[in-house]
Amino acid sequence: MRRPQTPLVSTRRKLAFLRRADSYHEGEGPVEVIETHFAWIFLTASHAYKMKKPERHVWDYSLLDVRERGCRAELRLNRRLAASVYLDLVPLSCEHDGRLVLGRGQTVVDWLIKMRRLPAARALDVSFRSSGCICSREQRGVIALLSRFYRAAAHRPMPPEGYLRSLSARIARNGKDLTAPDLRVNPLWVEQIVRNQQQFVRENLVLLGARSSHLVDGHGDLRPEHIFLDGPAGVPCAIDCLEFDANLRRLDPAEELAFLMLECKRLGAHGFADQLGTGVLAGLTDAVSPELIHFYMSCQALNRAKVAAWHLRDRRGARRVRHWRARTDSYLEDADHYARWAVSNGWRSVRTAAACVPDVCPTC
């Protein structure tokens, strides 16, 4: 007997169904829709449902079974930092008569991650923009959240020579990508930043090689907009980890934290960034020098400049060319500044560095 074929349900039809309030068991409306590069998020009054786009980007989610695996991985990984937010994996199904239902039905045609809806006003970036700071209790909560995470994170060490090669290759790749002719980014500026970063690697082989034993399976995209000061459990949480590539999450905790510090400083939250660095890094197994943090901040800023520049190729964002051009240049300024500082201060002895004190640079 022939197996029944999986019904072909267009993405447009799925989106139309998921935009309707009566499609959800809670029956709450209206439904707010947020579109990102990789997914659609449907917000009801109390929950958020995320459906991955069936497209090829940095990862190929064109196949249903791949999207299912990606959703399961996202659910599992994000529960490390937001267990009370990530609730379940929910199938989108098609019945015999062609009706779509959210939940188990005749045939699964897609998958959605069900989450508790978080108050947008309590995101770390929104809090900084609205009030310029957060209270000491909230600072301690974020520090405690990340400290626990890095203590419990799975260790993924690498041979020192392998880590050094990967750092150097990543720097070179970012430089090459940014100097693509169609992006029209100043190549001399990028090349100067790359030279300084590579110089720091060459002059600090022992320091950087030693970090290879500290690599963990991290978050992968730890930005202020992914940290919420009040999760469902009444404590801070972090969402939206990078689930599609474990290698991109294989990070030195000091580098992941440097990325968050960079983004906080860009929001004007210099004091919080410094408190964060001192508090979380104090819990790591060895001291982390200011030079290393500045180097990592430079590397992350160069990578973010590349991501911003790539938006210039998106025809859908043609109206925001000026925005993405300015954002690219802003990250390049940060990458340049932190690389110069790291190189000029790289002579300091790592053995005498007690902990990260990021504010040693008066303009950081």
Question: What does this protein look like?
Answer:
By secondary structure, the protein is α+β, with helices and mostly antiparallel strands. The protein has two domains: 11-117, Phosphorylase Kinase, domain 1; 124-360, Aminoglycoside 3'-phosphotransferase, Chain: A, domain 2. It is 46% helix and 12% strand. It is built from twelve helices and ten strands. The strands form three sheets. The protein has a six-stranded antiparallel β-sheet, sandwiched between helices. A two-stranded antiparallel sheet has the order 7-10. Strands 8-9 form a two-stranded antiparallel sheet. Strand 2 and strand 3 (47-52) form a beta hairpin. Helix 9 packs antiparallel against helix 10 and helix 9 crosses helix 11 (290-310). It is globular, with a radius of gyration of 22 Å. The termini are far apart.
What is shown here, in short?
It contains twelve helices and ten strands. The protein has 364 residues and is α+β, with helices and mostly antiparallel strands. The strands form three sheets. It has a six-stranded antiparallel beta sheet, sandwiched between helices. Strands 7-10 form a two-stranded antiparallel ribbon.
Structural domain tally: 2
Strand order of the largest sheet: 1-2-3-6-4-5
User: Measured on Cα atoms, how large is the radius of gyration?
Assistant: 22 Å
Cα end-to-end separation: 70 Å
Mean pLDDT: 90
Q: What sort of overall outline do the alpha carbons produce when their principal axes are compared?
A: globular
Helix content: 40-55%
CATH fold-level name of the largest domain: Aminoglycoside 3'-phosphotransferase, Chain: A, domain 2
Strand content: 5-15%
The total count of strands amounts to 10
The low-pLDDT segments are 349-360
Number of helices: 12
CATH architecture designation of the largest domain: Alpha-Beta Complex
Largest sheet: 6 strands, antiparallel
Succession of helices and strands: HEEEHEEEHHHHHEEEHEHHHH
Which CATH C-level class of the largest domain is it?
Alpha Beta
Report the structural category: alpha+beta
